[in-house]
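Quick note —
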Amino acid sequence: MIEVFVNNSQLLTNLATNEIERIKKDLTFRNPTYESILKYSRWGTTKEPEFLYYYKEVGDTLIVPKGYRIPFNYEIKKDNSLSFNNIEYPELRIKLRKVQNVAIEHYTKDTGTLVINTGLGKSIIGLALAGKLKERALIVVNKDDLVDGWEKDAQLCYGDLEIGLVKGKVFNIGEQITITTIQTLSKLGDIKLDKLKASISMLICDECHRCSAKIYSVLNDFPARYRLGLTATKMRNDGLADVLDLICGETLYEYKGEFETDDIISSKDIYIVRRNSNISWSPNIDYYWCKSGRTVKSLFYNDVKYEKYTKGWKALINQLLSTKEIDSLPVNLQEAYKLISGSEEFNNLVVKDIKSEYAQGKSCIVFCKEKEHINLLYNLLVEDCPRIQKYYGDMKETKAEIKAKAESKEALITLATISISCEGTNVKSWERGFLVSSVANKKDLIQILGRLRRTKDGKSNVFFYDYRHPLMTIIKSHGYKRDSWYKEIGITKII
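Predicted structure written out below.
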């Protein structure tokens, strides 16, 4: 029988050959970065490893992540995981929602992930669990503004709690709760890191769908007994979704709308307003790429000789298509997005819709991919809609100031990049959303809709303008995908 020694990882000994092979296979993943770079590489080569290995082999011992569920019978010989189970917390000062209580009840193992919709209080769940277990918790976030959010929620839960902070040059470990960013944690010197590891018995990873990134490997060094992952969606498009289980543990509970809550706009009160553009575009055949990594264009000029350019080009394309030796690259999307954001006709359509909602006093958030598009829309709107602001990474205003203006309706329009607005941006006032950049990722769509679903007095429904492009070869399928996801979420009012 396999013998297991637990500390920050699991050390497996007394393994049979078939057990070793199975575990290695489970913990080996194709590297999406390798495949991406290879596809774009002019020479079809890269130094990036083809596979990612989430195990170490030391003699006859396999070292595997703490979240890995061993698929064979095993015996824990020794468990050195750090647990205090005696850290005193103040009494919880708030009444938990039903979904929060249900999620907490499902946390029955030392490691695990809870998947909870945006707006349902994931941070409250984590804080309540830390208090219930009486463990000193380290909360790991991926953005600076999320630190403030967790601090406020901790005070909401427990009152004037002295909260520890590890960020930048500040290194202060709290008696109950400490908050840090993954960026700071990854750069800590050995002395501070060792001190932190020796003080923490519970790791709470916010937005844990990001845990497959290399920067999160520092979490593997913590001997904390308890690990909790929190996310609104566990989906990934790079094949590394299972890696999240290794870091934080398997999904123990996922909210699927089995009961309604008064604190979030119901799916039946969300209206999807579809708008079609007239932009017509098909990718140039120059963008076709061979499986070998070379462009069809380079093959045409360097490897194949044809008497007539057009005839030869088409013949080469047809030949490669028939043998399934070529793919079209996502690089086409970038060109398509530029075409969309630069279209005067499309931008006028968007501006008209925004102005209409602004005139009715509705609080609006506009989702863009690039700040250049934000600046363009801002210039088109600001004269008629002076209560407007921008929201992207390098703004002079703080994120807290921007969110406060949106919440108070001092700014009725917020033009935001999808990347910065979709995590930890909680504004209850937003009641109209505009998706002006195409999204083909269910996780992103759920996060975007989550910005609009928080309840507030006088807010009874949400209208979401979904712009799609049926005449654009590479983009048109995105709208069909989103329609199917709306139905999965329970949204039926699609105009």
